[in-house]
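Hi C.,

You asked whether I'd gotten around to modeling the 313-residue construct. I have! Everything is below, sequence then structure, no commentary in between.
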Amino acid sequence: MAKDKVAVVGAGMMGVGIAQIFALAGHEVALQDAFPEALGRASSAMRETLTFLAENGLGRLDEVEPAVTRVSTTPDLADAVQGAAYVVECVFEDLELKRGVFKQLDELCPPETILCTNTSVMSITQIAERAVHKERVVGTHFWNPPYLIPLVEVVRTADVSDEAVQKVMDLLRSVGKRPIDCKKDVPGFVANRLQHALWREAISIVEHGIADAETVDESIRFGPGLRLPILAPMENADMVGLDLTLAIHDYILPHLEASREPSPLLREKVAAGELGFKSGRGFQEWPPEKADASRRRLLGYLVHVLTDDQRGF
């Protein structure tokens, strides 16, 4: 049985990675971008990534070329979405740009085609504002790198149909992802809200001299971070008891960072050009070799976790 065609709009890092996921699962994929140079890099990028994954136990080498050949590239949006059952938008995080893309997609695609946006924080409702068929527009926030992180946040709007959401959830499960149902279109959805609540407190601890940046990271890596993949917050609260959780919150919450503004320390560093890996200094020093080692460590860890998961651990 032939699998549904998927169109991916935007051939940046996320778009190429998402196209690769569907192609590896047997879908014909049309990858569109207005910049020919981005399309020109897509095949070699997918080939390199798929080879890396296969060499590390995630897939097979004989699947690489068939997957790459399932992805066609085009600068023409109408050509890309022709016959597609699903469209995933991965253009730059600019609200006006995304609104324009969805207006075009809504005009080009028949009402049964489901339109997805990969925005990480923007309102799906606002992105779909100029579309007529808002019932088929849904958020699908893939995490980077999309071919290694299983999570995809499926974000509902007040207008989207249950049928469209269910079809997207089923599609994502069929290609090996772990979709979650975000029932309200709120800034940051689910996982980014949780992540940035932690980051706000981490930066505040550094700002107020409680611990330095390296110590903050060590406290997570060798403490709660070790158990988070297995024992996440809600299950942990139930495990220790909600009475104890309440008692702890009564005591500690008044002392936690609750600012609605970004940290002054963070603003100072950005103003000073201390941007992290890209500038060589952020909250810590990052010479190129140290930054590269951090990236390799992350990839190695994710591959290890996923290969263990395939073995049933």
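If it helps when you're writing up: The first strand starts at residue 6 and ends at 9.

Thanks,
B.
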